[in-house]
Design a protein that fits this description.
alpha+beta, Porin, globular
Length: 319
């Protein structure tokens, strides 16, 4: 069985290139909602740079590995913009993707300290990706020389896609959003008749921040749901706790598909570091060591930048 599994993974990887609508999702979306939703670009009025890396099913030969670099921040008072670059490999498939996020932010409701009770944003993303297969796939016994789709991917196939999202918060406590994914690719496949799936591709996130003063702890329960064509429906239940004003963060997650995850992290003076480990319940778990993910980032608020500039101007006037 162990000898057969690598061959099966190669086959699944090749088929995934031809049918899957998106790569595996990163788990640190509660801390970094832009992972899921383009409308979150610049939403916190911070400039953020992030590096994410995920190793799925570590210890298993040719298991999926994804690396991403992201940057996002506010532009003026009402806009946010972000950019990302992804690299992914799984079995003998490879994916390079670039993405641009643009968001329009607005607020309404009673203001507290100049901040509206409701803050919301509408955003969209455009992405371009190139999919390729390793040349040595032709030496695999399951390869069929007459398969035109596989031969096309050997030379590389370019794809364009887009999506939209809404994201918002209430009193900086309740947060959430909805993203409609793969609008272009789904439309093209429906026109060509290559798919019979009439469902909507979406990602939904909702959560709330609680303060437990007696324990000096911030609690954040959340739920994420994702429905993507040619992929299993996904639902995550998360509970995270922040200690010492979120200088130390710990969390637990349960995935509807049958997996649990542990998160550890820290936020200190703009620096962010998160690590998570996932362990599945299925029979395939005996062939791997679980999944690892790490995020390193740095954020600086626009108000801090403006305050620094104001102080510098004052100092120059006093000279």
């Amino acid at each position: 069985m162990k000898k057969l599994l690598p061959t099966l993974l190669v086959l699944l990887g090749a088929l995934g290139v031809l049918s899957a609508q998106d790569e595996a999702i990163f788990n640190h979306y509660v801390q970094n909602p832009i992972i899921l939703n383009p409308a979150a670009a610049g939403f916190l009025d911070e400039y953020t740079l992030q590096l994410n890396a995920r190793a799925q099913w570590s210890g298993f030969e040719n298991s999926p590995k994804t690396v991403a670099a992201r940057i996002n921040g506010p532009v003026g008072q009402s806009f946010g913009i972000g950019a990302a670059l992804f690299s992914e490999s799984a079995a003998q498939q490879n994916r390079i993707k670039g993405q641009l996020d643009v968001a329009f932010r607005f607020g309404f409701g009673k203001e507290t300290k100049g901040v509206p009770a409701f803050q919301a944003a509408f955003g969209f993303f455009t992405q371009f990706q190139r999919l390729t297969l390793d040349g040595d796939i032709i030496n695999n016994p399951i390869f069929e020389p007459g398969d035109e789709e596989l031969m096309a991917f050997l030379d590389g196939k370019n794809q364009f896609d887009a999506g939209i999202g809404i994201y918002g918060s209430y009193m900086d406590r309740v947060f959430g959003g909805l993203t409609i994914n793969n609008l272009v690719s789904n439309r093209l496949e429906n026109i060509s008749g290559t798919t019979t799936n009439e469902g909507l591709n979406y990602t939904f996130l909702i959560g709330q921040h609680f303060r437990v003063d007696d324990l000096n702890v911030n609690l954040t329960p959340s739920i994420m749901m994702r429905n993507v064509q040619d992929a299993p429906f996904m639902m995550d239940f998360n509970l995270q706790a922040g200690f010492l004003d979120d200088q130390f963060i710990a969390g637990l997650s349960y995935r509807y598909l049958g997996a649990v995850g542990l998160l550890l992290g820290t936020k200190l003076n703009g620096f962010q570091l998160y690590y998570s480990y996932d362990l599945a319940f299925g029979g395939f778990q005996q062939y791997n060591n679980g999944s690892h993910e790490i995020t390193v980032g740095y954020s600086i608020s626009r108000s801090d930048i403006l305050e620094s500039r104001r102080r510098k101007v004052q100092e120059e006037k006093l000279r």
